[in-house]
Design brief:
Blueprint (H helix, E strand, L loop, with lengths): L3 E4 L1 H5 L7 E4 L1 H8 L4 H18 L9 E4 L9 H12 L20 E2 L7 E5 L5 E6 L8 H11 L5 H21 L7 E6 L1
Length: 193
């Protein structure tokens, strides 16, 4: 999967990037989450799809987008999704960067438990807003994965079963990211007016 290139004026100001351009890779999201799974992949695709819908061929501005999620941050996988969206967009929750002289504020750009149907991203400069629908059901897990998961969770699986479970798990992630990244049945953005 190609990198997501963003322009981060704060990184440029503070000397972390001479031109402000930073490439983010799915592997960065994996390092942040500590694992690779359909949730992390789905959050990555949500960020990618939302930024493409908001910026088109422009380089998106990291820190220039607010993110709104429907679930509370401690419900289900919402916290993980929020962390990946923070990584890519720069939008942070209450603990985010307060800014310098009123500029480059990241705090409160990520909000949970909002009255939205799906992840909503809004450009701060133009107000353009999109809602990104994600549905990973069209990319199901292999049937053998469920039985292997039970054996692994109950600690009754051998080394070969562990490896096979991991292989099947990552195969689904691979299919999401490489075969369905632009599949509107899996991920799509719609403008909000």
């Amino acid at each position: 999967m190609p990198a997501l290139r963003l322009r981060d004026p704060l990184a440029q100001l503070l000397g972390a990037s001479a031109d402000g351009l930073i490439d983010y890779h799915y592997a960065d999201a994996v390092r942040l989450a500590g694992h690779s799974c359909p949730t992390v992949a789905g959050a990555w695709l949500t960020a990618r799809t939302g930024l493409k819908a908001l910026y088109g061929d422009e380089v998106p501005e990291r820190g220039g987008v607010a993110v709104f999620l429907p679930q509370p941050e401690d419900e289900g996988v919402s916290g993980v999704v929020g962390q990946v969206l923070t990584l890519v967009t720069g939008a942070a929750g209450r603990n985010g960067f307060h800014g310098l002289g009123g500029q480059h504020v990241r705090k409160d750009l990520l909000q949970f438990a909002q009255p939205v149907v799906a992840a909503r991203l809004r450009r701060l400069d133009t107000g353009d807003t999109v809602e990104v629908q994600l549905d990973i059901r069209p990319v199901p897990a292999e049937p053998a994965q469920a039985a292997l998961a039970q054996a692994v969770i109950r600690r009754g699986a051998g080394a070969a079963q562990h490896r096979e479970f991991g292989r099947l798990w990552q195969e689904r992630v691979r299919r999401l990211l490489l075969e369905h990244a632009d599949d509107p049945a899996v991920v799509r953005a719609r403008p909000i007016h």
